[in-house]
Write a structure and sequence with these properties.
This protein is of the alpha/beta class. It contains 15 helices and ten strands. The chain has a six-stranded mixed sheet, with helices on both faces. A four-stranded parallel sheet has the order 5-4-3-6. Bound molecules: ligand F0G. Ligand F0G binds next to helix 5, helix 9 and helix 13.
Length: 406
């Protein structure tokens, strides 16, 4: 969505946005709608907004993670603090509000899990019927559980991956009149761009050198890029941060595309990664993401299952935690620092896209040494912290604690 900002008076916005933080009105409590001057499509109809007080997610310092990656300092923007535990809520409040405005009754999406959890919650909150399509057997339990609890009609398509189901649902949407809320939906991108606004607002408008995020369908890369670019055009920031996108090695079509300058984009037919949120071989938003990386002097990195798993455990030990896809950021930063693309003194903000509880099965397997790659290969439990079974015997437990302490 392109806007004509000629009537805008952005010089007062920073103060206005700050003031709204202390206000109890639902729209001002939302970390999306607080920035509504930059969401002008909503116009005067903001009474139709469906909000669960999304956004307002913290910036958290992770000294242990910084050390792990070789950085002097590292900050996380943790989108897992959202109402349904992922960054999808920032976009979904806009997407579902638009469905309400259009008088739609049924909304649908294809998802690797988080979009469906978010859409189910917002649609139900708005009194709409959510229908979600998931790859059968390849979604984390936390996300599936949310969809069921929020009352979505949940269809698990057998023998098809995310990309194939997306093609299927586009055909169904054309014929059935349901409103599609995938990440190409422009209203969702508008909502997600407010993450860039809120990040800088919380950082007292100091622009970091790098903003790092995992890449799947690449809608988030497009959204962050749009947010930063609009702030720059409105002269609310003096320069753009560089954007780094990180993909999992087995699902890295964008990484390969950017490596082979000039070659046509080629989808990965059977994408694989335990970070199921980013298990996408044919990302729809790659052209936008390419343009964002060009404008921001950005880069793409790819990281292995082992690198993701270890980085995730380190983020956990910071007392922060996140789901596997989000941990690709730290793994990618470590790699970018080691190859000299990122300097240890640069200021880096990594976007943690999902909550630690989204995928508890993965966590348990990692810490108990049972986690395997999609091809059944070994993943070392490098930072494993397994639970220990003990007898109901105080002396034995005290002895055990002494041994662990030393
Ligand atoms: N991190 C998490 C936790 C995600 O759920 C997703 C995408 C991404 C990163 C990648 O973002 O697609 O904009 O590049 N999840 C989508 C879903 C595909 O269906 O929930 P992206």
């Amino acid at each position: 969505m392109e806007y004509n900002w000629s009537e805008a008076n952005p010089s007062s916005w920073k103060r206005l946005w700050r003031e709204r933080r202390t206000d109890n009105a639902p729209l001002n409590q939302s970390g999306v709608w607080r920035y509504r001057e930059m969401l002008p499509f909503a116009g005067s109809e903001t009474n139709e907004v469906v909000t669960l007080r999304e956004g307002h997610t913290p910036l958290l310092k992770g000294p242990l993670a910084a050390d792990y990656a070789g950085l002097r300092e590292l900050t996380f923007k943790h989108q897992g603090f959202n109402p349904t535990g992922s960054f999808k809520d920032n976009g979904m409040t806009c997407g579902v509000s638009q469905a309400v405005r259009l008088g739609k009754q049924i909304v649908a999406c294809v998802s690797t899990g988080n979009t469906s959890a978010s859409m189910a919650a917002y649609a139900s909150a708005a009194g709409l019927k959510p229908v979600i399509f998931l790859p059968h057997g390849n979604i984390s339990f936390g996300k599936l559980a949310q969809a069921l609890e929020y009352g979505a009609i949940t269809l698990q398509v057998k023998g098809a991956n995310f990309d194939e189901i997306l093609a299927l649902v586009r055909r169904i949407a054309d014929r059935s009149g349901i409103y599609l809320l995938n990440s190409i939906n422009p209203f969702r991108i508008e909502g997600q761009k407010t993450m860039a606004l809120e990040m800088l607002d919380q950082n007292d408008w100091e622009v970091p050198d790098w903003v790092v995020m995992p890449g799947g369908n690449l809608g988030n890369t497009a959204a962050f890029g749009k947010g930063f670019e609009e702030l720059y055009r409105l002269e609310l920031i003096p320069r753009l941060p560089r954007i780094a996108v990180v993909q999992a090695t087995g699902s890295a079509p964008f990484f390969h595309f950017m490596q082979q300058q000039g070659a046509p984009f080629s989808a990965v037919k059977t994408p694989e990664t335990l970070a199921t949120a980013i298990r996408i071989g044919d990302p729809v938003s790659w052209p936008k993401a390419e343009s964002v990386l060009q404008k921001t002097r950005g880069v793409v990195e790819s990281v292995s299952e082992q690198e993701i798993a270890d980085a995730k455990a380190i983020i956990g030990r910071c007392g922060i935690g996140c789901e596997p896809a989000s941990a690709a950021t730290l793994a990618g930063i470590k790699k970018l620092v080691s190859t000299g693309i990122m300097a240890s003194t640069e200021r880096v903000i990594a976007v943690l896209t999902g909550n630690v509880l989204k995928d508890p099965d993965y966590i348990y397997r990692y810490h108990t040494g049972e986690l395997k790659t999609p091809a059944n290969g070994v993943i070392l439990s490098t930072y494993g912290n397994p639970p220990r079974a003990v007898d109901n015997d105080p002396d034995a437990i005290i002895q055990l604690l002494e041994r662990i302490k030393n």
